[in-house]
Structures
1.
Amino acid sequence: MAAGFSLAAAGQVVAQTDPLPSWNQGAAKTAILDFVAKVTREGGPDYVKPAERIATFDNDGTLWAEQPAYFQLLFAFDEVKRLAPQHPEWKGKEPYRSVLAGDMKGLAASGEKGLLQLVAATHGGMTTEAFEKSVADWLATARHPTKKRPYSELVYQPQLELLAYLRANGFKTFIVSGGGVEFMRVFAEKVYGIPPEQVVGSSGVVKFAIGPDGKPQLLKQAKVEFIDDGPGKPVGINRFIGRRPILAFGNSDGDLQMLQYTVGGSGPRLALIVHHTDAEREWAYDRKSSIGKLDKALDEGRAKGWTIVDMKTDWKEVFPPARP
Amino acid sequence: MAAGFSLAAAGQVVAQTDPLPSWNQGAAKTAILDFVAKVTREGGPDYVKPAERIATFDNDGTLWAEQPAYFQLLFAFDEVKRLAPQHPEWKGKEPYRSVLAGDMKGLAASGEKGLLQLVAATHGGMTTEAFEKSVADWLATARHPTKKRPYSELVYQPQLELLAYLRANGFKTFIVSGGGVEFMRVFAEKVYGIPPEQVVGSSGVVKFAIGPDGKPQLLKQAKVEFIDDGPGKPVGINRFIGRRPILAFGNSDGDLQMLQYTVGGSGPRLALIVHHTDAEREWAYDRKSSIGKLDKALDEGRAKGWTIVDMKTDWKEVFPPARP
């Protein structure tokens, strides 16, 4: 936008070709449009150089749904079922037995340790390429238990528009998620337009080795390396991006430190939170949810004037239309 | 380049406006130009989509010099001297005493453990922002002990041209170095045109905390987190970039696995090694050097037809002209 181009004129242009058609008019949409207008206005007091227009998005519950459980966990369950014929011992061994029997109570009893075992069994002991293929195969065939759609269609249409709008305005968009980095990279480019090198996430230990065929390979180990959640998010941003975001978007207490870190810098900053308020089109949950718990971040966001996006009222559409 | 545009014509254009003027005509330059021509030729058998044109460069000895010691280590020595007034106990304590006395024999006696102590004392116990400032201040004032130039001028002019040439042809250029990621990011954008998010390196543990001023901060700890060297390089590439490079450039055995991993993929690949053969303009060292040892990678590179760049004969210029 050329210096001197008036705000009113910019407003008209926006009104004529709405870059965020799935966002209803309201405080959240206005906050986004105003923020992008001011940081891109050359010569203006809030101008930010393109190289510094870093925007970070949580994934689960912010870019795609996360109920009734994180989709990556549902992938692990499906993998246990797929791999069970090669592991006859699983039938009598927790937590595998519970998963195979569909016994969610039994699974809950195995606690976090049980879940980590499941993740280790389905995410480790293979090359990075074999893992990538298993995720791609699952995404191509699996359906969400209640929505009956492919998981990659349970992304939020308003966020797809926001990502594209930010990029069209010189932003570099990143995912910063507690999800596994190698899991997300399988679909992030195709679904969100975010290339692998702009995905930050949790990771397991990986070892380099020369394989039996004489070719170099990377082997995923059954051991956690880095958890990109809570205070791990600003640490991950520092390690992978090396620049403080000017815009961050989350939906749970696991995003609180990323949002604090983002607004803690000087100059214009925008912190946003998706509040899941739509039991009809999506799900309604916040303070008491075991998945995507939003409690402290909601209080701090309200107290500090962060933009709380009310899914029910702010989003005209939630999911994209089903693919033909 | 449009499909059907003839190779001969492309050769003429290159000759007319040489994108690599500091490279002498020879096998190395030809290998680079041919590789870039074929991966960018739309419709050709070796065409690579821009998103997959990942090029990774080692830093020490590949993009800038590394003698008489890694520059980051010289920074640590200078920092010990700068901080000594606040640490009167250092005068009687190794390895600090040796550094302060300029006693390189005494320092050598403290071994790798001593060097790690020095790095911990000068790279930890501060915020990431304070560290960034200390590196920037040092780069602005320090001079190389024998070349008498700022360290950031001891970068290789032919490599600056190569980085720019690759980017002009749709490549995304990354640093993948054993050096500290936060150290390199201070100058990588200005000197190499490589933004912070495209720098992969070794790192220390960083903790998130709310500071005494109520502001969030990232505190560097005196503990190593990840060593991006040797087999750590393909691991770092997988973790940070998530895509196998099609071109990699190194200069030492610490780059061997990165080069193996790069050529191990399908499709066109280019592996390059700087061989330091120029005792007059730079330094001459390889198999027996304690810094930047090039032995196994030289053998494997020659055996497998990787491009070995002979600094003395392949580079018309080594360093850029001194800044006025």
2.
Amino acid sequence: MTTDSWADTGGGFGIDNLPYGIFSRPGELPRVGAAIGGRVLDLAAMSEAGLVEDRRCFASGSLNAFMVAGRPAWDANRARLVELLTDETYRDRVEPHLIPVSDVELRRPFEVADYVDFYSSEHHARNTGRIFRPRDETLPSNWKRLPVAYHGRAGTVFPSGTPIIRPSGQRRTPGEPEPTFGPSLRLDFEAEVGFVVGVPSAAGRGVPTGSFRDHVFGFVLLNDWSARDLQAWESRPLGPFLGKSFATSISSWVVPVAALEPARVSPPVQDPAPLPYLRCDERWGLDLRLEVLINDQVVSRPRFASMYWTSPQQLAHATVNGATLRTGDLFGSGTVSGPTRDQRGCMLELSWDGREPLDLPDGTKRTFLEDGDTVTVRAQAPGASGSPITLSEVTGTIHPASQP
Amino acid sequence: MTTDSWADTGGGFGIDNLPYGIFSRPGELPRVGAAIGGRVLDLAAMSEAGLVEDRRCFASGSLNAFMVAGRPAWDANRARLVELLTDETYRDRVEPHLIPVSDVELRRPFEVADYVDFYSSEHHARNTGRIFRPRDETLPSNWKRLPVAYHGRAGTVFPSGTPIIRPSGQRRTPGEPEPTFGPSLRLDFEAEVGFVVGVPSAAGRGVPTGSFRDHVFGFVLLNDWSARDLQAWESRPLGPFLGKSFATSISSWVVPVAALEPARVSPPVQDPAPLPYLRCDERWGLDLRLEVLINDQVVSRPRFASMYWTSPQQLAHATVNGATLRTGDLFGSGTVSGPTRDQRGCMLELSWDGREPLDLPDGTKRTFLEDGDTVTVRAQAPGASGSPITLSEVTGTIHPASQP
């Protein structure tokens, strides 16, 4: 797919990307669009004009109706968009449906059914183990046998740009005899990559690693905001709850799985060899280069290719017990962290639980996030044309805790 | 509310109960009904006939549209149903809309938004602590400070009667060097009580204990099916995942909060005193007497009044970090277990992790559940008329694991 487009395709939003999202203009209903350069292609209008297959789902306020249509529909629509945006003869008919992104409001792209968050970076797992459980083995004994995960709160998954209100809750500093209540003092981000399910699965049947593309619609960037003090105090024995459930942010644009084919690389060697249901014949590491920014200053450059467990392994694991998938099921990778400090994907690791404050280029220091801080995660991946494609950023600004 | 009804009100389904559910007859669309005696009052037809306030929500296939209407609407509708079912002059107009429950199929009563499961029985927490974490303190240090909870899988909450397929997954018996894969060998039930949210809450604002009734629509019985071998191996450090996510069953009928007013009792004394946000001026223990049956034989009689944390405390905790509530949010109490063996709410406790097999009246023994076993949880509560009201049973039969 190295064909040139007649449209402006800058910023990593060329015809080898074409992510889907939900947009609206003032006074108009939200509907489905695709990003191309700095513009949004109005798919509802295109469908009405007979330029793409007539799908009422494009007039919908979420991608769910299109996501459930399945891979043949996704592939056909993508091929058609490429045709329309490269063939000059369509230009006059398509141009009227291209809207500058500055003129639209972007919404949450899909309705989240269930939200599951993994813990699949070995570097992150080792670091948090050292910080939270210094007396135990660094890596839990199950960690290299299965992709550890938990369910998060689907109702608090927000689109990029949503303000993040600092959560309050119980926390007890080690050494303190009593827990106290108040705004989190250790508010953190987690830079992650997520994928979203389009096609449901049948009850009692898992989704083998080889069927990943038949179910998964696309990828987003994800920030699993975390209150470390709440989390540390509450997590025993059933895992994180309020420390995570106040907010999770996702990108406004969903990158189709097909757009990431050129990004596929071999994942790290898995030793011990996983059980048969977790084996994957295809290489499904993804060469996504993330950048984390605090107040527009890059603080970390995690690489998604370093993740120990791949997305198809995560999906096969999550369904091997017969749990069904629904359209809109969202799976987060877990914090993406690399071996060096400048590749760590959260403040907990970057400041080593606050013990080694991080120096920002603007001269300030951070242990955890402060009110007013804006955290942005962005990423690029190799594109089919040779130049990188952009995964649209996920960003959020910390607002002070609500008064009780 | 001691008025007599002209309708047959047997089985604990009198006019002081009037639970809501979703039913259908062959060839007809599912719609909202209320249970009275052995019959279902067709509220969609009643609304069409002008007998209850015209609500399109009664023609819906889930209770969500009625649940979001809020407490004034719930109270008004309940009062109207009592009027219609007690005043003889309405009898001829109402009778045509009463359908024998044997003629209908009951559906899942509401669409589940998020599903949270607590761990609020002190006896259950102490027992599982002794079994799973024998080297640690019996009760985690946070347990009496906050109601411990985790998010479960909303997409696998099923109505009573849905077959439960034995899940497969990874498990490692302590002492074994390697995990193996296969059908769970320690399949269990958990007898619980759940409540469901009708009215959403605002972002960043918690729901104080005193506002419980403004948000919560009603209660169900709940069985949080659990694969103990999968759960034990996977849970470190992020809590249960596949050991729980294959299935959760709920009653077909939702008992309105108002129907349980006469069941309210003082909960156990809480020592240490909870933090202010968890204090509750009203007494919110609930005198629900549960019975657990395996293949129609009673194996346990847990009492919900023994729960350490109350429902309003659970809701206040779950939202104190600003997490929003959505219509359909389901909260499970956690396994209801009492101090004696015949009050334990799961096989893990009843057979002490399989070490003390349970003798059933039919002469068989159980450590965990076998294929073909039917587990039923039912309950009664004091009703306003003096005789008990019934919480409709939640039941499920174990089917063999799917072939991979």
